[in-house]
Amino acid sequence: MQKSKQNLKIQFFVTSLSIVLFVLKFVAYFMTHSLSVLSDALESIVNVLAGLIGLYSLYVASKPKDKDHPYGHGKAEFVSAAFEGSLIITAGFIILYESILTFFEPTSLHNLDNGIWVLLSTAVLNMAAGLGAKAIGKKNKSLALSSSGQHLLIDSYTTYAVVIGIGLVMYTGYTGIDAIIAIAMGLWIIYNGYKIIRESLAGIMDEADMALLESVIHELNLIRHPNWIDMHNLRVIKYGALMHIDCHLTVPWYFNVNEAHTAVDAFTNLIKNKFGDSVEFFVHTDGCMPFSCPICTIENCEKRKSPFQKKLEWNKDNVLSDLKHQMN
Question: 0.70 exceeded by the pTM?
Answer without folding.
Answer: no
